[in-house]
Design goal:
The complex is a heterotetramer, with two copies of chain A and two copies of chain B.
Chain A: E1 3-8, E2 13-22, H1 27-39, E3 44-55, H2 57-72, E4 76-80, H3 84-93, E5 100-102
Parallel strand pairs in A: 2-3, 3-4, 4-5
Antiparallel strand pairs in A: 1-2
Chain B: E1 4-12, H1 18-31, H2 39-57, E2 66-74, E3 77-83, H3 101-108, E4 111-116, E5 122-129
Antiparallel strand pairs in B: 1-2, 2-3, 3-5, 4-5
Helix pairs in contact in B: 1-2, 2-3
Classes of the chains: A alpha/beta, B alpha+beta.
The complex binds adenosine-5'-diphosphate (2 copies).
């Protein structure tokens, strides 16, 4: 099971540090973690993804939905330090329009 | 005298088994010196195919069914098949997914084949041409 | 000496051409005495494959591209392929469709194959086993 | 192009008589016809489908969406006299949960 360590930093970003592999077995946990992060009400929700070594289309769907909801209220979802495994599916699906990918 | 490597794994169609699927395929690809890329692409395609078995093949059944995974590498051609003995391929208006699985698989493979499993269920065959990386 | 019937049609990838596709396939199936079912299933699968070319293959291009349709009937085996020279198979989060096309095709065919067209684009091969109806 | 002949009958059903083949080339016309029928506000919207000799997944999606919208306001969508071509895709997708198919 992946772990989702959440904290609020000064710049009003909620940072979610994700470790593990994201697939349909962890999609519910991911959804809850993103909902809880969005509920902090900060301008930015940033996923620290350096520890994500696998991400499938169901996790992508969860991230996309969260990004859309944040965008609707004027916040934004950032994805930082994406590994090659994460970049692969992001680029394939051009999700970069909704989610801000930070090198 | 084996110029072809094979892997054959049968697992129960539970979501918690997808990491095991990747573990088995990673081990097989490592043992055969397949680089990344394309190893990551292979893992993604196989996970999507197995996730479809978990989510769709045995829908309505009280117990999970089987996922039969086979991989064969000969020369630079890798063929992985994922077989289930479920209710057969059918469109679902109530799919819990976003409909990205098959398109992701099709875009990662050099050939995707879908056909009924003799008896019942679905077999998905994915072929990858490994263009010798580093 | 032809124990195999063939049809080959190239059309522009405009939505208005889908009735023409069905007209051509209907004519081919009629001439070969294929009953309904399964003729209706074949028409549906071919329409879905061609609709995908219209909606996805050439997305972003200023002009529609080509849909190349080929049908071959030998014995009780009907194989229809739909080929485009578009940008290749890719998942689309902004798809205008409901994601039912590929699942509908897969459930109607005895074998569905998706692979890149040499050069560029996608080829979808659909096989139907015609179990002599009335 | 299919034609969509609409009228209101005594039993407060709006009947839409559809003639033709429904695919992505006619999906917009179908959507407009169903929207206009729903706007009549009757308890029933009935599609007379004896003249529909082809229906693809995009038309099915349009019909399903209309059926859901009608159900939400307490109305219902009926599909009458479906041809084999129409039944085939309805049954394949079990759409009969939202749309009332009348023999
Ligand atoms: N192994 C399977 N058995 C039965 N139906 C399947 C199977 N795999 C896929 N399907 C059908 O194909 C559809 C499309 O699959 P996919 O592209 O992965 O999208 P999603 O799983 O998100 O719906 C599914 O909704 C389901 O109806
Ligand atoms: N000929 C094609 N060329 C490129 N991409 C395609 C083609 N056919 C299908 N696709 C991709 O596969 C996805 C799934 O197709 P389909 O199941 O028919 O659903 P829909 O067309 O409703 O999205 C499409 O959204 C698109 O991303």
């Amino acid at each position: 099971m992946p772990t989702f360590d959440r904290r609020t930093v000064d710049e009003r970003a909620t940072v979610v540090v994700i470790e593990g592999e994201l697939d349909i077995g962890s999609a519910d946990a991911l959804r809850s973690a993103l909902d809880a992060a969005a509920a902090e009400g900060t301008a930015v929700v940033r996923l620290e993804a350096a520890g994500v070594h696998f991400l499938d289309s169901s996790a992508l769907g969860v991230i996309l939905a969260a990004g859309q909801r944040l965008a609707e209220r004027g916040s934004r979802l950032e994805l930082a330090n994406a590994t090659p495994a994460v970049r692969r599916i992001l680029e394939m699906t051009l999700i970069t329009r909704t989610v801000h990918v930070i090198p | 005298m084996s110029d072809s490597d094979r892997l054959s794994v049968t697992l129960s169609s539970a979501p918690g088994n997808l990491p095991l699927v990747r573990h088995a395929i990673r081990g097989f690809l490592d043992a055969s010196d397949v680089a990344d890329p394309p190893a990551g692409e292979v893992l993604l395609a196989v996970t999507e195919a197995c996730a479809n078995v978990v989510q769709h093949a045995y829908v309505g059944d009280p117990e999970p069914g089987a996922i039969e995974l086979e991989a064969e590498l000969s020369g630079n051609r890798l063929v992985i098949s994922v077989r289930d003995h479920g209710h057969g391929f059918a469109p679902r208006l109530d799919s819990p997914g976003a409909g990205l699985g098959l398109p992701v698989i099709a875009s990662l493979t050099d050939r995707l084949e879908i056909r009924p499993t003799p008896g019942s269920g679905t077999e998905i065959m994915m072929a990858f041409a490994l263009n010798e990386a580093a």
